[in-house]
Design goal:
This protein is mostly helical and about 100 residues long. It contains four helices and no strands. It has one domain: Aspartate Aminotransferase, domain 1 (Alpha-Beta Complex), CATH 3.90.1150.
Length: about 100
């Protein structure tokens, strides 16, 4: 298995688990820990399903967090040229400076 590449994304929008979605601090930290450990799109889908089952409908910031994670995975696992990841990130939304 090839080494994973560290990818940092700076895009507009909210991407987090709101306190009113995952109320318990320890549960929210565990959810972030699990998300950080995801290494495939399939695992990300399983985690999304788990959050839906456990906490209910995803608020926009949680959806944004999953979408950014999907983009990170796509770029980290990409065997294609880096420009394909840049195009995907740009399609998500250009950064406003």
């Amino acid at each position: 298995m090839p080494d994973l590449v560290q990818v940092t994304l700076d895009v507009p929008g909210e991407a987090h688990l709101p306190k009113d979605y995952v109320e318990a601090d320890d549960a929210r930290l565990e959810a972030y820990r699990r998300l950080a450990g995801v290494t495939s799109i399939a695992e990300l889908g399983d985690l999304r399903d788990e959050w839906l089952d456990r906490y209910g409908a995803l608020p926009a910031p949680a959806t944004g967090l999953l979408e950014l994670s999907e983009l990170r995975l796509a770029c980290s696992n990409s065997t294609s040229a880096p420009s394909s990841c840049y195009r995907r990130a740009w399609a998500y939304g250009p950064v406003q400076s």
